[in-house]
Amino acid sequence: MTPTYRAHDLDDEACGAEPEHEAELHSGFLTDAAHWLRGLLGPEDRVAAAVRRILDVGSGPGAATCVLAEAFPEAEVVAVDRSAELLARAETRAAERGLAGRITTRRADRPEEFSRLGPADLVWTGNVCRHLGDQQAALRSLASALRPGGVLAVAERGLPPRFLPRDIGIGRPGLQARLDAHLEERFAAGRAGLPGATSVVEDWPCLLASAGLVPAGTRTFLIDFPAPLELAPRRHLHTRLRRVLDELGERLDLVDRLTVEQLLDGDACTGILWRPDAFYLSAVTVHTARLCRVRA
């Protein structure tokens, strides 16, 4: 089956290690975002009563699912994804954190299924809409799952990860900027080929308002691991670079391709697993909106 939505940027294989590595890197941002959402959902003494059920749409291995369950300890949280294996990982993660009794999973392959996930007080979705042909229709479907007063939180775009200085001492300076430009071109071409692809201005508050919701605030969260990096983020970057090289293929000129191959050399001091100047810096923007009326 052709995938209709996914939770990760580089079109990673659903069963690969990259979602797990990325989940660990993003755990701090997810905690901050969940506590910000608590404040949006009402006074502290009333949040427990106001938030009874949460949907994490495009959950992947369940990192956000578990963080939301911890931030809203009275709520049932449902992890929703197209991948049965990633949902199994979400169940394992929940069990490891003592949350198995409050976290359930649901498979959903198509945007029109979002409205059949049952009513929720909070719907969280990260990097899902960008991989759907009709982003506005996807938001309408997500919004249809909200109870009156509920909040839809959409994490989309922000700033792509940066992890190399401009001049890394091999190849030509500016490698990462060129890689980002190639990836953006590839992404745009992929979006144009999605079923039902519709071009929209990606003004997320406006798109949320067009879905029948009232924008409730936007916030950007920084993910910052300065040099020198620990081994876990280095492994994630190695996996990411390997996938970039595989996906961009002949788009890269010879010098840049050879430079990426050097960065992937696990034995070289210039490789991403060893170089002291490697860092990880990214930003995720979360857009929120509330359902302020009873649906007809």
Supply the key terms.
296 residues; alpha/beta; 8-stranded mixed β-sheet; disordered N terminus
Briefly characterize the structure.
This protein is of the alpha/beta class and 296 residues long. The protein is built from ten helices and eight strands.
Describe the structure.
With 296 residues, the chain is of the alpha/beta class. Helices cover 39% and strands 20% of the residues. The chain is built from 10 helices and 8 strands. Strands 1, 2, 3, 4, 5, 6, 7 and 8 form an 8-stranded mixed β-sheet that branches. It starts with 17 loop residues before the first helix and ends in a 6-residue tail after the last strand.
Taking pLDDT < 50 over at least 5 consecutive residues as the criterion, the unreliable ranges are: 1-15
Integer average pLDDT: 90
**Share of helix among residues?**
25-40%
Sheet with the most strands, sense and barrel status: 8 strands, mixed
The sequence of SSEs as H and E is HHHEHEHEEHEEHHEHHE
Strand content: 15-25%
Structural class: alpha/beta
Radius of gyration: 20 Å
Measured distance between first and last alpha carbons: 35 Å
Count of helices? 10
